Amino acid sequence: MSFVGLFLSGAVLFLNSLMLIGKAEAKSVGVFNLFVGVIQLIIPFYLMMVSGQHHWELYNYASIFLFGLTYLYVGVTALIGLDGRGLGWFCLWVAVIAVVYTLTAIFHFHDAVGAITWGMWVFLWFLFFLSNSLEMKIDHYLGMVAFIQSWVTLTIPSLLYFLGVWNTPVVQQIWLIVLMVSIAYFAISLFKFRLFVPLTHVEKS
Predict the structure, then answer these.
(1) Beta-carbon count within 10 A of 142 CB
(2) SS3 at position 11
(3) Is 10 helix (H, G, I), strand (E, B) or coil?
């Protein structure tokens, strides 16, 4: 996926995370989702038209649509107050597609950082499905995951690429550690969250 697209996605996911934890107003964030969503539809269409139409080129450009369509759907849902269940089911579909990108990164490209990154996005889209379609009360946890992923899978990798150091062995090894630590934090936080829910329920009952 284009690192310019990743950079813009980092900004959107950062704002969406703040919206989820109640630090930003939904309609305001929705406008930015629409703005970036449109850009992330125009760019891949253009790249596909001027490309050599090789299937791996189309495969890479198609991944940009996953983000662009998600942002458009989030933006429209926030702005006009749509029922979020449709968005959630779309996120489940995207999560399944992202599993394919994860497996391809492992078995075809042999890209450990790319595979873990796609795996983290699978988890994020699946959480959006749980929150919107199954209406699970996980917005604070989801917001925390989105906040961290906005930096470690999108914004910082893009900046490192622009600086010309992203593909160096040292940075790749460091980033493997960063991603693994992030995943461990997600797991620990999820465990704490699952313990907290029953305790709260008992106190209320």
Answers:
(1) 21
(2) helix
(3) helix
d(CA 139, CA 19): 9
First-last CA distance in the chain: 49
Amino acid at 106: I
* Ramachandran assignment for 71, one of left (phi > 0), alpha (psi -120 to 50 degrees), beta (any other): alpha
Single-letter amino acid code for the residue at 9: S
pLDDT at 202: 41
According to DSSP, residue 154 is labeled I
CA angle 115, 179, 189 (to 5 degrees): 115
- Cα separation of 89 and 3, whole Å? 27
Q: How far apart are CA 121 and CA 101, in angstroms?
A: 10
Quick one: DSSP state of residue 164? Answer: T
Q: Cα(149)–Cα(145) distance, rounded to whole angstroms?
A: 6
Which pLDDT tens digit goes with each residue over 97-138? 999 999 999 999 999 999 999 999 999 999 999 999 999 999
Condensed to tens digits (0 to 9), the pLDDT of residues 181-194 reads 999 999 999 887 76
pTM of structure = 0.92
117, 179 contact by CB (below 8 A): yes
The region that residue 186 occupies, defined by phi over 0 for left and psi between -120 and 50 for alpha, beta otherwise, is alpha
Q: How far is Cα 25 from Cα 15, in angstroms, rounded to an integer?
A: 10
